[in-house]
Amino acid sequence: MSQNNGHAKRSEKGLLTPDNCAVAFIDHQPQMLFGVSSFDRQSIINNVVALAKATRIFDVPTILSTVETKAFSGLMWPQLKTLFPGREPIERSSMNSWDDRNFVAAVEKTGRKKLVLCGLWTETCVALPTIQAIHDGYEMYVVEDCCGDVSQMAHDNAMRRVVQAGAKPVTALSTILEWQRDWAQRDTYDAVMHLVKTHFGAYGVGVEYAYTMVHGAAPTVYPEYEVPQTTVAHQ
Fold it and tell me: Most buried residue, 7, 158, 169, 186, by most Cβ within 10 Å?
């Protein structure tokens, strides 16, 4: 067993495990998302939330950071921030988080040399820290479907740049499955399957079908929807 909250240790040999990496979420804020046109913006939210939930399932250290919250970018998406109760993002003025001492100190504090990183926008808030972290000896993984940019060209050029610098492109789902690795690992199996059913479309529907129609399991029960009540601010 590993020291990672009792989860079974996965083999490494060049792969990501819950024990050997940390995850950074950078500038997932309203104004940054407004400018994205390289990828479906609702999908970015979905993928970011799924990856964040997975860090909780596998107890992977996370770093949250925002830029110019009050002056320009707005608050971190509530869908993301609610997954880390009591945590405040590291606020920056620099577009390059690797220029921010508090951000770098938070990464160093994890003790991990593999950093899984995502953010908005790809060509600045993702590419710049990725390249400099590689220079400083980190092995970098960019979660492409949790990133976006002002144009397809900007995003594609940024991804080519980080790959040429030595970063590995991954997706939210590929990262989650790499952490799980073996369906016999029952300590995280149910949580991962719930994550798949909630966030990963046809794959999730297929899992629900297999559970109910092949294995005879009861259908997944989701919380009953309650219509939000009108708040005082809107009256």
Answer: 158
**Closest-CA residue to 204 (of 57, 10, 79, 50):** 50
Distance CA 102, CA 171 (A): 27
Alpha carbon distance 172, 176 (integer Å): 6
User: What is the model's pTM?
Assistant: 0.94
What distance in Å separates the CA atoms of residue 16 and residue 40, rounded to the nearest whole number? 27
The fold adopted by the segment(s) 21-178 is Rossmann fold (3.40.50)
Q: What is the helix (H) or strand (E) element at residue 141, kind and residue range? A: strand 139-143
CA distance 179 to 230: 41
Domain extents in the chain: 21-178, 182-214
Q: Which tens digits make up the pLDDT trace of 67-104?
A: 999 999 999 999 999 999 999 999 999 999 999 999 99
CA angle 107, 118, 77 (to 5 degrees): 100
**C-alpha to C-alpha distance for 42 and 158, rounded to whole angstroms:** 21
Q: Give me the DSSP letters along 39-102.
A: S-HHHHHHHHHHHHHHHHHTT--EEEEEESIIIII-SPPHHHHTTSTT---EEES-SSGGG-HH
Rg (CA), the chain: 18
